[in-house]
């Protein structure tokens, strides 16, 4: 079995509400305002932020676009953009799962919606990212999950049959799209649940 990992909320911490509380303390003062600004800034990772993931907009333009749309100042949006790398910290249990799969001889790959500046940061900062056999960051190929093109490109780059890939992603539409591409895929909640799911599927490397 060949395992494919998403990054945000799978291998790396991603708490947008917390990030915005820290980056925009004057705007985000409670749970309701946190939800509001998460929706406004990230747009469910479509819209402006989706273009950032796709690699078609860079941080200065992104800040201007979000500011014009939301009423935040460009400096406020820039503060959010710059805060993201600090939020993306490895999840210890997920990293342990990855290492156990590698130690058992399984090949590991990644497929992540990730803007180019953050992809560069993660590669430069975390050795385990460079330990994957291959991977795709959305901004480097011009497609985002759950678009079918990114799964086809990933399978081609990984060089293995679709049915031999097992994909972990926290977002159900991305999992469904992977299944439609012929992959096996599981919705990732946490490493313990992933292990239980793998055991149930008979894929755990005992």
UniProtKB/TrEMBL annotation:
<protein>
    <submittedName>
        <fullName>HAD family phosphatase</fullName>
    </submittedName>
</protein>
<dbReference type="InterPro" id="IPR006439">
    <property type="entry name" value="HAD-SF_hydro_IA"/>
</dbReference>
<dbReference type="InterPro" id="IPR036412">
    <property type="entry name" value="HAD-like_sf"/>
</dbReference>
<dbReference type="InterPro" id="IPR023214">
    <property type="entry name" value="HAD_sf"/>
</dbReference>
<dbReference type="Pfam" id="PF00702">
    <property type="entry name" value="Hydrolase"/>
</dbReference>
């Amino acid at each position: 079995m060949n395992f494919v990992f998403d990054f945000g909320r799978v291998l790396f911490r991603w708490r947008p509400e917390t990030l915005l509380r820290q980056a925009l303390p004057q705007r985000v003062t409670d749970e309701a305002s946190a939800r509001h600004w998460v929706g406004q800034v990230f747009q469910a990772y479509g819209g402006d932020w989706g273009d950032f993931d796709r690699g078609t907009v860079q941080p200065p333009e992104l800040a201007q676009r979000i500011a014009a749309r939301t009423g935040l100042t460009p400096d406020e949006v820039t503060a959010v953009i710059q805060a993201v790398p600090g939020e993306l910290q490895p999840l210890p249990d997920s990293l342990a799962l990855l290492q156990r799969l590698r130690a058992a001889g399984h090949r590991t790959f990644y497929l992540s919606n990730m803007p180019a500046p953050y992809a560069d940061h993660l590669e430069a900062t975390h050795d385990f990212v460079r330990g994957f056999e291959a991977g795709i960051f959305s901004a480097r190929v011009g497609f985002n999950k759950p678009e079918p093109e990114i799964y086809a490109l990933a399978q081609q780059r990984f060089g293995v049959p679709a049915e031999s890939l097992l994909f972990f992603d926290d977002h159900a539409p991305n999992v469904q799209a992977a299944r439609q591409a012929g992959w096996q895929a599981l919705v990732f909640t946490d490493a313990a649940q992933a292990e239980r799911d793998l055991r149930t599927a008979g894929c755990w490397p005992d």
